[in-house]
Automatic annotation (TrEMBL):
One of the essential components for the initiation of protein synthesis. Protects formylmethionyl-tRNA from spontaneous hydrolysis and promotes its binding to the 30S ribosomal subunits. Also involved in the hydrolysis of GTP during the formation of the 70S ribosomal complex. Keywords: Cytoplasm, GTP-binding, Initiation factor, Nucleotide-binding, Protein biosynthesis. GTP binds at residues 90-97, 137-141, 191-194. The lineage of its organism: Bacteria, Bacillati, Mycoplasmatota, Mollicutes, Entomoplasmatales. The keyword Nucleotide-binding applies. This is Translation initiation factor IF-2. Belongs to the TRAFAC class translation factor GTPase superfamily. Classic translation factor GTPase family. IF-2 subfamily. The chain holds residues 47 to 420 of 629 of the full protein. It is found in: Cytoplasm. The gene is infB. It comes from the Bacteria. One of its GO terms (molecular function) is GTP binding. It comes from Mesoplasma entomophilum. Residues 81-251 form the Tr-type G domain.
Amino acid sequence: TEALSIADFANQIGKSVAEILKYFFAQGLMLNQNVVLSEEQMAELALEFGFDFRKEESLTKENFFEALDASEEDKPEDLEHRAPIVTIMGHVDHGKTTLLDSIKNTNVVGGEAGGITQAIGAYQVKNKDGKKITFIDTPGHEAFSEMRSRGANVTDIVILIVAADDGVMPQTEEAIDHAKLANVPIIVFINKCDKPGADPERVKAELMKYEIVAEEYGGDIPFVQGSAKQKIGLDQLEETILLIAEMQDYKANPNKLAKGVVIEAHLDKAKGPVASILVKEGTLDIRDMIIAGTTYGNIKHMEDEHNKKVLKAGPSKPVVVYGLNEVPSAGDKFIVMNDEKMARTIAEAQAEKKLAAERQSNQIFSLDSIKKHI
Ligand code: GDP
Ligand code: MG
């Protein structure tokens, strides 16, 4: 970008010199119209006045994440293969955690309070040929259906798990809705086929009502039968995922600043805010500063699903990051923003926007409740 004086800049963005001087004055800076702006100051003004000096469309600190989604398409030659991102969805107790657990061959179920997944985690597994799959573990609890719907938006493939002894249940229906809204391929895993009351054919028949029709019945949805607990059908499930990944050809540009989504976050008494995030594009570097929803911070430490320190994370890689100044929300978008002042400005604007939206929804809520009481 060319060097511009305040007068030139004001002219370019269609604002008066006075407005710009006033902006700096409010920050304790007494400038005049001949002062040449630094690139950082221009970026700041661009955010303040809703004008992007690098792009045609306007990027503001309020529409920041939306505008990002709409911005820059990657060139085809910059795209590289990435691992498919898979979400397991289904009714509570149909075996989501057990399936994920069997896949990664560790023991999560035993450590869960009350058998319900308390937090969303994400893990990457590698098969014997070195092919990777990223799994997102969504909580089974009803209160998290909002997050599940967001989960469906980060995911490439949904595994719909249905217990063969129980059949289609309310949260199975919800999961089908989410998968259809997200418009992603579905694989049905009929679980608990080891149980005496298992009836996989009944499950297939029930799912037809939802237009989830197995290939053997003339549909195009792959079905896998097995047992998460007895580790039956897992190879076939993995093959099916990789087959879909091959056909869909998932790609991303790893050679740019990272963008992605917060999968889960909490406050650790000793370590401060901890966020489990999934990189969707670009490569996250341990030296980066990120802005995530209404919060930001320098990454102090980054680790993978095996609690091993990592220095970089590319597309489809889930990592846990430490160093945000507050706890973000699951489903928040994040992006690298290696300019602390701008990161703070945007984070604050996002927080204000969120607060305003909450106030408004509270108002709507109270209006509704008043009407009900008249
Ligand atoms: P989630 O709520 O969907 O995560 O379900 P869980 O993975 O917590 O499983 C609920 C219960 O079903 C647990 O007691 C599991 O041990 C059991 N379970 C899961 N998969 C199977 C299976 O394939 N066969 C049998 N017999 N039990 C299973
Ligand atoms: Mg679970």
